[in-house]
Amino acid sequence: MIAQRVTGQLAMSMRSAFFDHPLLTIAAFAAVAGATVVIGMALRHHQRRSHTLRQSLLVVALSSLLIAVAAGVIAARLMFVTNDELLAFLLLLAVAGGFASLLAVVISRPLRDDVRHLESTVRQIESGDRSVRVDTARADELGLVGRAIDDLVGQLDRLERERAAVEEERRSLLSNIGHDLRSPLAALQAAIEAMVDGVAPDPQRYLRSMQRDVEALSSLIDDLYLLARLDAGRFDFEGVPIDLVELADGAVESLAPMAAAAGVKLALDAGDPVHVIASPVSLSRVIRNLIDNAVRHAPPGSTVRISVSAERGAVVRVADEGPGFPSDFRMRAFDRFTRADPSRNRQSGGGGLGLAIAKGLVEAHGGEIWIEDSATSSVAFRVPVPA
Predict the structure, then answer these.
(1) Pair 145, 115: CB distance under 8 Å
(2) 100 Cβ neighbours under 8 A, 6+ residues apart
């Protein structure tokens, strides 16, 4: 009841002041509004130059109190409040201002600590530490900034690891290319010098050896060019209807002499035709690469089996009776210049690009290739069949 009475008296006093002096009342409050705008613009400029959030909060709190005091004094004068009442009113505002300042100090402390933690985290990130995180539980804009920084650091860490992996792969690629180019070039140089010096006992044999080295260099360059096109997504082919059974049969017939020279038999297990829409040259190369790789690792007197079946697509498997892929080799079997034999002997292994090319060609057809978990060494690939 007392609050309602006081409120009613204040309302009547304000109404009386407005009707008695309307222009003066409007001008007074317009002046307060203008002063508020000016102070607000000054505070915006001050906040940009302030070094601490605590100082900014205190200035805002005191400025708001000052505006409230000014508006209260003007309202009191318009209502013809006595000096004693005005003094009591000002004392009340002073006490309220003290509590408001104390509240601003208390509230600003955790905010200051969070901002300092945010700054420290950014400094650590700047110095190269990608393991640090803001890890804030705030739900306001400061929390959003902290979580955005954490996401950014995570992406930077992932990109740096990818960049390091790419750089390592680039160095390994250059080293392997140099190794595979050096051997045939050295053989060519030795053969040419022997023939120029007239010390070659059988020039025709030297010429045949030089021809094989030139063919090896040409094959390596073609493989590298094909891999570059596959990596860049610029491998285009015209798909035509083909039977994978016929394609595998042609590859077996073509590679049978090479396998026989190594003491290995080739056996094709296939039933009904398996039709796909693909590039016959590309898939034939994939099958040949897999058979060639299997023959190189199959023990003499064993059999390399090639099977074609329809299993959620067209699946081709090539399995030999060798010891299988080493466990540490499975994860990188389809990388460039990767051999299960670390000696990198060109006689016992190819250029290390066969499986990498096979993977690129199969994926270009929308398929997949994998090493199967079995007692034998088995590689399989799947390409989609027409609907």
Answers:
(1) no
(2) 61, 64, 65
DSSP string, 254-315: HHHHHHHHTT-EEEEEE-S--EEEE-HHHHHHHHHHHHHHHHHHSPTT-EEEEEEEESSSEE
Contact call for residues 362 and 383 (beta carbons, < 8 A): yes
Rounded to the nearest 10 degrees, the angle between the axes of helix 2-20 and helix 53-78 is 70
Distance CA 226, CA 222 (A): 6
Where helices occur in the chain by DSSP H, the ranges are 2-20, 22-49, 53-78, 83-126, 141-196, 203-232, 244-261, 280-297, 327-330, 354-364
10-residue block means of pLDDT along the chain (387 residues)? Answer: 47 50 63 70 64 64 70 61 63 70 69 79 84 80 83 88 78 68 81 84 84 80 78 79 92 90 91 90 90 88 92 90 71 64 48 78 90 75 87
Distance CA 360, CA 371 (A): 15
- Residue 136, SS3? coil
Predicted local confidence at residue 132, as pLDDT = 84
Q: What is the DSSP letter of 58?
A: H
- For residue 154, which amino acid is it? G
C-alpha Rg value of the chain to the nearest Å: 42
State the pTM of this model. 0.54
Q: How far apart are the first and last CA of the chain?
A: 84
Structure tokens at 33: 């509004």
pLDDT of residue 9: 47
Contact criterion met (CB below 8 Å) for 230 and 361: yes
Complete domains list, the chain, with CATH: 2-126 (no CATH), 174-232 (1.10.287), 240-383 (3.30.565.10)
Return phi, psi of residue 344, to 5°.
55, 45
